[in-house]
Amino acid sequence: MDRVQIPGYVKAVLSGLADAGYEAYAVGGCVRDSIIGRRPADWDVASAAPAERVMEIFPRTVPTGIKYGTVTVLIGRRRVEVTTFRKDSDYSDSRRPDTVEFISELHEDLMRRDFTINAMAMTADGEIIDHTDGRGDVRRRLIRTVGDPDSRFGEDALRMFRAVRFSAQLGFEIEKNTLDAIFRLSGTAKELSRERVRIELQKTLLSPRPERAVLMADTGLLDAFVSSRGRPGGQSRLSEVGSEGLYRMCAFSALLLRRGALERADQLAANLGMSVKNCRLITDACAAAPEMPSDMEEQRFFVIEHGEELSKLAAAAAVGMGRPGSYETMMSTVRWHDYIMPEELPVRGRDASRAGFKGPEIREIMVRLCKEVAAGTLELERRTLTVRMREIKRNGF
Ligand code: ATP
Ligand code: MG
User: Fold this and answer.
1) Against a cut of 0.70, is the pTM above it?
2) Does residue 382 register a pLDDT over 60?
3) Which residues line ligand 1 (CB under 6 A)?
4) CB 313, CB 282: distance < 8 Å
5) Where are the alpha helices (DSSP H) in the chain?
6) Ligand with minimal distance to 70 CA
7) How far is CA 84 from CA 16, 48, 101, 224, in A?
8) Mutate to test the pocket of ligand 1, among 80, 118, 167, 202 (most ligand atoms within 8 A of CB)
């Protein structure tokens, strides 16, 4: 396809710039997505206009990245990032260009981009400018660096994570030379900030192909954040797990744990800077997962004991540990809700202490009552429950 539709507000930005005498194009991800037939998340524009001029041309702008020549233009409730054509030079910290040289040339601006599929531009009437055969790679469904992969990854190590992330989001393969270079240069990923790595990993895990995150471990990209690459193999269907960050992260951690790549379940999460609370949940879920029954009838007892949130996370971990179907059944168990939780009983903790239970025993007796109610052997009635509590106190658990 050579021509694609550009939304009106983007056209307004392109023509505003053109009317002021500046070359301007839609570029990058939006062009790629339009060609693939995917809905672009946002539209970026590259133009010959310096940032200060962009701010003069449009009435509502935000200087979001003036240093890099980026201004956000507001049109109605929409926003478009406009960046001056640029050529990056000298990367010394494997991440940020030291100097940004402004040039009025689309070609060089496209050549500094990471992958051929991301290095295309589009005019206001939808004509595609493609100097690196990005369209060919879209057809072949390949992620390929613009130019020599070793030098492009040497300039910016984050691109290696982006390669895996795009392959997961788009379902494209990573072209052989590009993939080989990732294996060779994965060690340089240790220079990246953990926040950037976490964002790429999470985008990968939240994509339709979360399994591809395993490639981040296999190539060594995660070496700085795990204890070893672990044993390869044993693919898990992480996509079965609900598309929510913590669930997928929990399943992925469980998978790495099973492969022997982690010393502790929350090692990757902690090294990527996830909160103490979430690390705790991942640890508890991975510890509980092996005990999780697969049968819905039995799962109710597990939920009563562990609570709904942790049970769902444990089910996600079980998928990561190679037990397909656990997440789906657990979600049905919780949705169906054919059980009562300790906090919902018509007897309270103080009734338990009156019956003689102390400390952790109080929770234990409440859980026990809930299980008996769920099993159908005990009536959900205050007096019956109190009698049963006393009876257990006398006879022991
Ligand atoms: P999406 O926004 O859907 O995640 P995208 O392709 O728009 O995908 P962005 O991170 O928004 O990705 O970047 C916009 C464009 O800028 C990319 O398409 C690419 O051309 C270029 N780009 C972004 N990051 C880099 C990088 N690290 N190295 C080289 N070019 C990059
Ligand atoms: Mg984008």
Assistant:
1) yes
2) yes
3) 28-29, 41, 44, 113-114, 118-119, 156, 158-159
4) yes
5) 8-19, 29-36, 51-57, 106-111, 134-140, 149-155, 158-170, 176-185, 194-205, 213-218, 245-258, 267-271, 276-288, 296-306, 308-320, 326-336, 349-354, 360-375, 382-395
6) 1
7) 15, 6, 10, 35
8) 118
DSSP labels for 321-359? TT-TTHHHHHHHHHHH--S--GGGSSS-HHHHHHTT--T
Beta-carbon-side half-sphere exposure of residue 147 (alpha carbons within 13 Å): 13
Distance between CA atoms of residues 364 and 369, nearest Å: 9
Q: Please return the burial class of 66, using the count of CB atoms within 10 Å of its CB with bins 0-12, 13-18 and 19+.
A: exposed
- Write the pLDDT tens digit of every residue in 274-313: 999 999 999 999 999 999 998 888 999 999 999 999 999 9
What are 192's two structure tokens? 């990246």
Q: What confidence category does residue 91 fall into, taking pLDDT thresholds of 50, 70 and 90?
A: low
For the record, the structure tokens of 115 come out as: 């992958």
Rama region for 246: left / alpha / beta (φ>0; ψ in -120 to 50; rest): alpha
Please name the residue that has the structure tokens 């998928």. 319
50-51-56 Cα angle (round to 5): 100
Nearest CA to ligand 1 atom 8: 29
Compute the distance from residue 29 Cα to the ligand 2 centre, in Å. 5
Sheet of 128-130: strand order equals: 61-65, 70-75, 78-84, 44-47, 24-27, 120-122, 128-130
Q: Would you state the structure tokens that stand for residue 209, as one six-digit string?
A: 């192909």
Of 242, 259, 255, 244, nearest to 286 by C-alpha is 255
Which are the contacts of 343, defined by CB distance < 8 A and separation ≥ 6?
none
Give the ligand whose atoms come closest to the C-alpha of residue 162.
Answer: 1
Give the span between the Cα atoms of 161 and 185, in whole angstroms: 11
Q: Which residue has the tokens 């109605």?
A: 76
Amino acid at position 53, single letter: R
- Vertex 32 angle, CA 30 and 37, to 5°: 90
Q: Which residue has the higher pLDDT, 337 or 23?
A: 23
- C-alpha 178 – ligand 2 centre gap (Å): 21
Q: Which ligand is nearest to the CA of 160?
A: 1
